[in-house]
Every structure is written in C-alpha cells, then in structure tokens.
Amino acid sequence: MDFEYADALNQAIRLLSLRHRARAAALLAPLGLHPGQEALLLELDRTGPRIQAQLSEALGCEPPSVTLMTRKLEASGHIRREPAPSDKRASIVELTDSGRALADRVKQLWHALAEETVAGLPAQTVTELPAILNAMTGNVDTRRPASHTAAGTA
Amino acid sequence: MDFEYADALNQAIRLLSLRHRARAAALLAPLGLHPGQEALLLELDRTGPRIQAQLSEALGCEPPSVTLMTRKLEASGHIRREPAPSDKRASIVELTDSGRALADRVKQLWHALAEETVAGLPAQTVTELPAILNAMTGNVDTRRPASHTAAGTA
DNA sequence: CGCATAATGTTATGCGCATAACCTTTCTGT
DNA sequence: ACAGAAAGGTTATGCGCATAACATTATGCG
User: Fold this and answer.
1) How far is residue B62 CA from its own chain's centroid?
2) Of A92, A132, B37, B111, which has the fewest Cβ atoms less than 10 A away?
3) Torsion over CA of B10, B11, B17 and B19, rounded to 10 degrees?
4) Does the distance separating the beta carbons of B115 and A20 come in below 8 Å?
C-alpha cells in the first residue's frame, strides 16, 4: 500500500464523516434534534428502556456524553429517567409518548438518508457496505480490542 | 430498502467515524496533535502554501474552524501565517521546518492507520473503497450539491 | 469614479464527543 | 462482616466542528 492510497482512504473516511453528519444535522434540525441524539432515540425504540451504561455501550460513546444527551432529551420531553429499583446507582431511561412519535419521524428520515447516501452505487456494493464498514470499525476499535473474524496482517 | 438496512448503514457510518477518529487521536496524541490538524498539515505538505479559504475548501470545514486550527498550529510553531501581498484580506499559511518534519511523521502514522483500517478485507474491496466512500460523500454533500458521475434515484 | 456586492477572515456561541476527577453504590474475597 | 475493588453516574474542562454576526478589502457595474 502506498501513501497516496492511505491518504486517500483516511481522507475519504474523514470527509464522509463530516458530510454524512452534516446532512443528518440538516435533516434532524426541523425535529429539534442534533446529530447523535437520534441514535439514542432509535436505540430506546429498538430495545426498550435501558440504563445509561447500556446506552453508552450501544451508542459507542462515553458515559459523560450520555449524561448530557439524556439530560437534553429529557428537558425536551422525549425521554424519562427514573431510578432503577434494584440498583440505586443506575437510572432507567425510556421513551415518552412524544419520544416515541419523534422516533418514528427519525426512522423515516434515516431511511431517506441511507437511500440518498448509496444512490448510484452498484447493488452488490450496497449490499456489502454495512459489513465492510463494520469490519473497518472493528479494526480500529480501541474499546473492543481486535475481535474480527478475519484478522489481517497489520 | 428496508429500515433495518438503512439503520445499519447509518449506524455503521456513525460508528466508523467515531472509532476511526478515536484511533487517529490516539496515534496523533504523541505528536501533540489533535485529529483534524493532521489534515491541515498534510494539505500544506501536498500543495505548498495556501490561503485559509483554500484550506477551508480542501479540508471540507468552515472558515472559522480554519481560523482556530491555524492559530493553534501557529502557536505550536508548525505553521507560519503571513499577509498576502496581493490581497490585504488573505493570509498565506505555510509549513515551518518543524511543521514539515511533523508532516513526515504524520504520513507514517497515516499509512499505518490505513493498513490497520482495511486489514482482513478482500483486496478488491480495498481497491474500490476510496471511490465508494467518495461517491457516498458526494451523495450527501450539501456544499457541492450533487455532482456525481452516476446519479441515482433520490 | 463611486457604490453595491462579494470574498476573506475573525469573534462569539453552541453542540457532540473526549478525558480526568469525584461521589455513591454494589460486588468480591478473605 | 468488612475492606478493597469495581461499576454507575455526574461535573469540569478541552477540542473540533458548526452557524451567526461582524469588520475589512476586492470587485463589478452604472
């Protein structure tokens, strides 16, 4: 691998991050959401009530980030936090009715965003994309250190 | 396309962004750099002195971000800013000797990061990856609205 | 020319995410 | 049973990135 390729790849990942996030921000803004918050809503919608540690794990961000996100979503009435009965340290986070309605709207936007993102790509590429991206994520994941099925050279 | 795929794709992009950036941060930290700054150094290394507007364009971030990045890299002695002779508004940014040396070290890290990222992926996938990622970036790019070769449905 | 408009850059402010330090509660090992 | 370690959560702080508002300089058109 030459440097030119390496640079192109890293740059491409960086730019995709910026643009995809910016596009998501534009789509979410009318709902009063900032990018990142949608992931929390979708996670709660998928799995039901979770404690913050589980959210931190699922969203792939650190506990302090979850604290702030939940606080803001609670302030806007989309989620509710109540103390866990069996563990006085933990707090259970769940969607409110407003939050559930919002999650539905987010799902539509998310669908549109995904289609927009892969527009014009070959069908097979589109099919394989999530696995490819997840493999790359696993390769550079410092939280779950190296748990890929097909380990490489480097 | 069903929602499950859309969610998987968006989530995969989001997670790859977080992890790739985190890994980059870990690699750059010993050099005293934060992620994002390396892009500026590499751009200057590639193309020579640029004014900030050009950097903003090349890095894909907004002018205020460039202002802060250049200020910090100037404070650490890696770049130099001098007024443009032909345009009193613009300031020309260029690498110092220290900056050039740092850029060389960044290049090595960048190479290692790219190899680490695509480890275990099929060779053909690796070859096509940059183009795929760039196509997706173009699809969601709100700055350069829709300039892809193979236009899609959406 | 002179004036409206565009371009360059800066400051102020806000959000997401990170780490570090801290408190409280739970678990574990002896 | 109790001390130490581990886990859950919060606060404080810092960086990258964004937008909005602004000052300065260039430019294009009458």
Assistant:
1) 13
2) A92
3) -160
4) no
